[in-house]
Each structure stands twice: as C-alpha cells, then as structure tokens.
Amino acid sequence: MAGIYVHIPFCKQACHYCNFHFSTSMKHKNGFLPALLNEIVLQNNFLGNQSVETIYFGGGTPSLLSADEISLILESLRTNFLVAPDAEITIEANPDDITPEKLNAWSRMSINRLSIGIQSFFEADLKWMNRAHNASQAEQCVQWAKEAGFDNLTIDLIFGTPTLTDANWLFNVQKAISLEIPHLSCYALTIEPRTPLEKMIRKKTAEGVNADDQARQFLLLMDWLNNAGYEQYEISNYSLPGKHSKHNSSYWQGKQYLGLGPSAHSFNGDARQWNVSNNALYIQSLQKNIIPFEIELLTPVQRLNEWVMTSLRTKEGLQLNQLPSGFGKEIISGLRKKCIIYQQQNLVQETEHAFILTREGKLFADGIAAGLFFEESEINEDVFVAGSLHT
Ligand code: SF4
To answer: What is the atom index within ligand 1 of the atom nearest the CA of 129?
Structure first.
C-alpha cells in the first residue's frame, strides 16, 4: 500500500503564519500543469507495483485549480499508477473557493474526502491571520459540502492566537461539533522563521503567542472533543469512528509515498527526497525531463528516530513490537531507560506493549521525542542487524 501527494503551489494571498511553499503570483500557473503531468510520467516506477490507496491534493491551495485541471491530474495518476478503485482521494480547499459546482465536479471525479482550511469561525481571527475568506464563507462551505454528499469531511482549526479567547475557542469547537464534521485537525499557532508573522512580532506590530494560553486551550480542546465522542488518534487529529485520515496515518506508519510538485517530499522506505521549492525552476527542469530533487539516504538511527517522532504522537504510541526493521530488545531497554524521567513526571506511561504519552505529556510531545532520540554512537553492530530483527 502506498500514497501519492500532489502539491499545488499557489495561493490567493499569504496567510501571515504560513511557511509552506506557495506563490501568490499566478505567473507560472500555466507552465505548472504540463510540468506536473510530465513529472507524473517520469515517476511512474517510483512505487513499483504497489497499489495506491490514497491520493492527497495539498498545497498551497489546490482549490485554486479548475475542476478540469484537477481531473487531468487524476486521470494521469490513474494511467501511470495502480490507483485502487476505492482509494481515499482528498483535496484541500479554502472556503472562498468552494462552490456547489466545484463540489459536484470533485465528487464526479471520485474525490471522496474534503479538507477545508477554516481555521476559525471568527472574523477577527481570520483578519489577524490574513486569511482570504470570511466567517460566513467558513460556515456556508460546510453546508454546501454536506449537500454535495461529502460525508468524509475534515476542517483545520487554529488555537493559541492572541485574538482567540477561551470562549471563542469553545464556540469554534462547538460549531464544528454541531455541524457534524467528522474529522478535525487542530493546531497551535507556531511562529515560523521568515514568515510575515515572525517579522511583525519582531517589529512589535503584532502580538506574540502566549505558551500558557496555548497549553490551556489544547487541554480544553482534548476534553471537549473527547466528551463529544471524537478520538484523538494523533496529537493534532481527532475523528469520529471510521473517519481517520488514511493518507496521514500512512505517513505515521512509515509507508511509502510519492510527492509530486514543487517542494513535495517522497519516501521509498530507505531514502527521503524532496523537489525544489521554486516554481520557475521546477517548470524549467521538467521541460528538460529532469526532476529537480535532492535525496537523503536515511541511516538506521535516523529511521529509528523518525519512528520515535511520529509514533509517539499517535494514540498507539511507541509500539515495541513495531520497531523499524533491524532493531530489537536492546532498543527496547534503551527506550525504557530514556523514558524513566518522563514516567516520573507522569508525561509517559508504559503499557504491556507500548510507551504512550499521557494527557500532560501531549503538551510536550516534540521535546519528549527529542529526549528519546538515539545518537549514532549509541547504536553499534550488536544492536543493529541490517535486515533482521535482533531480539
Ligand atoms: S492558504 Fe494555506 S498554504 Fe496558502 S498561505 Fe494560507 S495557510 Fe499557507
């Protein structure tokens, strides 16, 4: 089983907090589609004969492309890869692009999951983030999506902005629950380097984030959604039964995926590669039938640490019978030693088969994962036996 990610690198306007690769200039939009279609053909052996179970249009803003353009891309993917007939096909869309016509067209081409970048139902938050949509569009598009039959629907919400009170945060979450949205991705606002927001905070033209407010809103969120029947199956992802994102879950399970488009990342089980984050260079290179990417072969320790990083964020935690291949009981005892300090602080608990973050531990997931990482010098031939479990 494998997945395909397609990056659409255009946005109407730049959200102040965003550090994804995108351009607000449409100068290269016409050159982008032929380049992408060419990349699909050039990469048609990347996944071997694996069945493609998930396709994800992300960005940027995929909903900026016309339905015909999305259809062409999907057609080419189906021609060049073994796309399963029941594949989960997700498109990210912004509320201001969503119309009943587009929804119906996406549905006709078997797109069966919609991810809407709502972020907040409040005008003040949306303005502060410099989102292109307004509060009424945020609500309207959900109604339209449901009318078009998109029952596999997810929205993004952001908390921890200076404009968001706890009462408004409760309103946003309750609004999502009352709209019967089956999947939510909820993120604390982070200040990424070189974003407009980071510059504004540095120049004191915008207020920074308050870590205590963010922690409190995260704990409130977990309680509210848990009480409403949502399962927190990954730190930032909550779903009603049967509505997990298969695509994102496959990243966390270490499955192979192909990324297409500028800045897209791929993973073949041994190496990660990523395309150039520049629309003009991407197009120029593909005009010469060259995919512009860099590649990094992962060492066993890097694979182990990636497994720690991603698995720790899931509800299953670090499952000791799911260690990356080549690792065995020495790693389990190493992990056990590293975990003691977090267990003493009630941030991690050990179950029969796993180390799992506690409710409090979820506040510090990245820091705890970093604390559990292994150094290259800790792993020697006695611990790692390539290609076999050494238990
Ligand atoms: S629409 Fe999405 S990708 Fe585009 S700037 Fe905003 S957050 Fe970033």
So the answer is: 6
Q: Looking at ligand 1, which residue's alpha carbon is closest to its atom 8?
A: 18
For the chain, what are the domain ranges? Answer: 2-251, 300-378
Instruction: Look at residue 18 and give its three-state secondary structure.
Output: coil
d(CA 337, CA 351): 15
For the question of whether the overall pTM of this predicted structure is more than 0.85, the answer is: yes
Q: How far is the CA of 335 from the centre of ligand 1 (A)?
A: 38
Ligand 1 close to Cβ of residue 22 (< 6 A): yes
3-state secondary structure of 49: coil
CB of 111 within 6 A of ligand 1: the answer is: no
Ligand 1 atom with least separation from CA of 130: 6
Whether ligand 1 lies within 6 angstroms of the CB of 60 is answered as yes
Distance 125 CA to ligand 1 centre (A): 15
Give the pLDDT of the chain (391 residues) as one tens digit per residue: 899 999 999 999 999 999 999 999 999 999 999 999 999 999 999 999 999 999 999 999 999 999 999 999 999 999 999 999 999 999 999 999 999 999 999 999 999 999 999 999 999 999 999 999 999 999 999 999 999 999 999 999 999 999 999 999 999 999 999 999 999 999 999 999 999 999 999 999 999 999 999 999 999 999 999 999 999 999 999 999 999 999 999 999 889 999 999 999 999 999 999 999 999 999 999 999 999 999 999 999 999 999 999 999 999 999 998 998 888 888 899 999 999 999 999 999 999 999 999 999 999 999 999 999 999 888 765 555 444 333 3
Phi, then psi, of 54 in degrees rounded to 5: -140, 140
CA distances from 375 to 162, 254, 267, 331, 379 (A): 38, 20, 22, 12, 7
| Region of residue 385 (left: phi > 0; alpha: psi -120 to 50; beta: else) | beta
CATH class for the region spanning 2-251 = alpha beta
Chain length of the chain: 391
E strands within the chain?
2-8, 51-59, 82-93, 113-119, 153-159, 183-188, 231-234, 237-239, 256-260, 265-267, 271-275, 293-297, 318-319, 348-350, 354-357
In CATH, 300-378 is 1.10.10.920: yes
User: Is 113 strand, coil or helix?
Assistant: strand
